[in-house]
Specification:
mainly beta, RmlC_Cupin_sf
């Protein structure tokens, strides 16, 4: 229900299946990562005290993004930092993925609605390097 995709000791992605269900607050990322991802499941009546977050200077080296699949089916192709293909996975309604490092590309299998969250500010073309990916026929899928 939680899959970490690791290549040469580098975390490329974390996939959280829509089937994951564990009470409390469950973090899937280490405290050092610039994007934090957790699953929260609380019972009715649980109180979370009001709070603010203090200003803290953070240094971000890589844009990390999270996709929440609201509806549909999406193939994600994962690449390392050298643009070499590593693996593909299918994301479905209710799944989430943290894209932590390396490259990624997508093919919509069924019409998709998703929410994307990533660090800002957005710096446009300075944030991305586009490259040729693999075709659907070249993918390797985990069974």
């Amino acid at each position: 229900m939680i899959e970490q995709i690791i290549d040469q000791n580098q975390l490329l992605a974390i996939i959280v299946s829509q089937k994951f269900d564990k009470p409390g607050v469950n973090f899937f990322t280490s405290g050092e990562m610039s994007q934090q991802l957790a699953y929260i499941h609380h019972p009715v009546g649980k109180i979370i005290k009001p709070h603010i977050h203090k200003p803290v200077v953070r240094e971000v080296h890589f844009t990390q993004e999270v996709l929440f699949i609201k509806k549909g089916k999406l193939r994600v192709d994962l690449y390392d930092d050298r643009q070499q293909y590593i693996a593909s996975r299918i994301l479905e309604t209710g799944d989430a993925i943290l894209l932590a490092r390396g490259g990624h590309g997508f093919e919509v299998i069924e019409e998709v609605e998703a929410i994307e969250v990533k660090q800002g500010p957005y710096v446009g073309d300075r944030d991305k390097v586009l490259f040729e990916g693999i075709s659907a026929e070249q993918t390797t899928m985990k069974s």
